[in-house]
Amino acid sequence: MQKSMVENMQLRMIKKSRKIMENLFFTPENYVKVYQDRNWLANEFLTLRKTPKQIGRSVHVSYKLINRWLIDLGLIERTSETRVP
Question: Is the pTM for the entire model greater than 0.70?
Answer without folding.
Answer: no
